[in-house]
Amino acid sequence: MNVFLTGCSGFVGKQLVSNYDIHRHVARKLKPIENKSFFIVDSINSGTDWSMAFDDIDVVIHLAGLAHSSRFSIEEYEDVNIQGSIRLATAAALSGVKRFVFVSSIGVNGTSTDSKPFSVNSTPKPHNAYAQSKYDAELGLQKIAYDTGLEVVIVRPTLVYGPNAPGNFGLLTKLVTKLPVLPFALANNRRDFIAVQNLADLLITCATHPNAAGHTFLASDMETVSIKQFTSAIADGLGKKVLQLPIPISLMRLAGKLMGKSAMVEQLVGNLQVDSSNLKEVLGWTPPYTMKQAMATLRNSGKSSLGKG
User: What predicted TM-score, i.e. pTM, was given to this entire model?
Assistant: First the structure.
């Protein structure tokens, strides 16, 4: 399979380019990766010209897009995340590309799970403009699949972690690195995450496995942990020792509300579980890295942080 990759300069994209055979990648601003086949665009949106981009390409893995940020307007999300994805997939289908792997977000399902894990059968509940744009892109891609026969595979990752990841969860590694104590001893919440190594491996599997076509997958390490366990795993990976203090969760939520950081606090102490069982049932896929193995790679990185899906 010859793979065409967008978003190669991002956190997950770098992992794919470094460890897998990517036939061609999208380069912006004349900065292609050395010794790699590339296709240059000014931007990926509703007006991108994809002419001649897909010669000898079998599969597109689409990572590029606007991330969750207050800097972007609804119109910008519409132009890039929705129409940009639809235009890319349409051009790929018309050029004879067989499969399109779209990296969406667990935010399509919602912000938290209180009773049972999210599954592929859960009703989508996008909670902000970013998540809504990802869901609308999914719907547009499924229509293209119906109209053209393009094999669309949708992957909704949980929060992604690993060396040099961007995002709010980078604060956790900073805390672990700088502070000998953390406030999570009483945190018994349940959250799912995915290591960047595991996500990259899954995306390649989705690109190549004959059974992947038409499926939506909720991607995780298949190891549900509390934020206490997660931050302790970060500390172990960094070779640090931390003491977990018994701060009441209600007090942390109150502090988050007073500081206007309720969403950030909830990402730490709330629940977000997913049922990833169809990854094994459909693809025979299990994560190649345990959380402990993935966290161990933090120690050898010059800069370590965590990113969000």
Answer: 0.93
